[in-house]
Amino acid sequence: MAVSGQRRRPVVALYERIADAVHDGTYPPGSTLPSEPKLAAELGVSRPALREALLLLQEDGLLTVRRGVGRTVNDRPPRRGFEHIQPLEELIGAGSPLRVRALLRTVEEPTDFTTQHLLAPARAELRFWESVLTGEGTAAALSHEWAAADEVLDRVHPEFARALRATDPAAASMLSVLLGASRETALSAHSGITATLLGRRRGDQLGRPADTPAVLVTQVVRVGETPVLAAKHMLPTGTPALPVLQSH
Question: What is the pTM of this model?
C-alpha cells in the first residue's frame, strides 16, 4: 500500500479500475467477468497482478467465485473503495446516510486520548470536530474527531491537509473528508468497542438521560505507520445497528 505520498501499488490501482468498472455498470451485478487471460489482455496487465487484485475484490465482497461459471459480480456489491473504512454516518445509516450537524469546529491541545492515538507532542495544535449524527429528526450518535498536526499531515498526507483547510466542515465528518482526499493514498484503520453510559453532558447533547446505555467506538486511521485521524463515537441505545467485524 502507498505511504508518505507515494503512488499506490499497481495491484491497488488495478483493484480500483475493476471496482470502478463494477460500479459504473461495465460489469453489472450478476454478470460474469471475462476469463483471466481475456481480462488481463483487456486491462493490459499481467495475470499474477490481476489474480491478486481479483482475490482482494472477492475478500471485499464485490466478486464471488462460482464453480463452473467463474467470477461473478455480487448482486449488491459494496460501495466503491475503502469498503472497510467508512464514515459512521454512512455505516449506520442503513442505506440512508445520517445528517452531520456540527457542534464544534476548533483547534485544541493534545489530550490523553490524542497523545496516545495520534502520538501528538504536548504543544501540538490539533483540529477537533464535535458532531451529532441525526436521522429522521432523532440524534443517533455523537462523534469526536481529531486530525494529526498540520506538519504531520503535510508530510504524510498533504491531500488531506489541503482538504481540511478548504472544506466547509459544518455538514461533514472529518473521516468523510479524509476518504474524499485519499484516492491516491492507501489507508488502514483499527477500532475498539466498549460498553458505557452516556453521562450528563453527552446525554444532554443527544437528548437522552444520563444513565442511557451506550457503545463507545474508538477509531484510528493511519497512512502507513503514521496515525492521521483519531475518533470517539458514542452510540446510545436505539441507534441503528452497527456492522462489526471481530478480529483476534
Answer: 0.67
